[in-house]
Amino acid sequence: MINNILLLVNILLLVLGQTIWKIGVSKIPLTTAKDALNLIISPWILAGGVLYVLATGVWLYLLSRLPLSYLYPMQSLAYVLGLIISLLIFKEFIPVSRWLGVAVIMIGVYLVAK
After folding, report:
1. What pLDDT shows up at residue 37?
2. Continuous segment of H or E residues that includes residue 80
3. Which of 38, 71, 93, 100 matches a 20 to 30 Å C-alpha distance to 111?
């Protein structure tokens, strides 16, 4: 039970990190080398990196406890959460084909979890 909670924490940290990076890159135009440097030292990018470091720590712990053949497919729930965040936070249009792809992922996760 605790390992599944940690797996969810790992997924949330990864998706939150990506979300923060998306916000960060939308705030700084990338037209010059100086812009790239400003992006790298941006609090948004650094915060996303910290979340990735935390997610990696949780992932390493999970790898020591559970089979990779279980963990890796379950981590595909990050794609589902990423799609939902894209819709709710970034107001992106999600075509039907992408929703169908997410449904297939969910079916796969269900089968792996059984």
Report:
1. 81
2. helix 77-88
3. 93
Q: Provide the strand spans (E) within the chain.
A: none
**Minimum mean pLDDT range among 6-15, 26-35, 76-85, 97-106:** 26-35
pLDDT in tens, 23-80: 999 888 778 888 788 888 899 999 999 999 999 999 999 999 999 999 999 999 999 9
Count of Cβ atoms closer than 10 Å to residue 96 Cβ: 7
| Euclidean distance between CA atoms 53 and 95, whole angstroms | 32
How far is 84 from 42, CA to CA, in rounded Å?
A: 25
Please check whether residue 86 is in contact with residue 92, taking contact to mean a CB–CB distance below 8 angstroms: yes
Question: How far, in Å, CA of 55 to CA of 15, rounded?
Answer: 10
How big is the chain, counted in residues?
114
- Cα angle 64, 60, 82 (rounded to 5 degrees) comes to 125
Contact criterion met (CB below 8 Å) for 63 and 71: yes
Tokens representing 5 are 């909670």
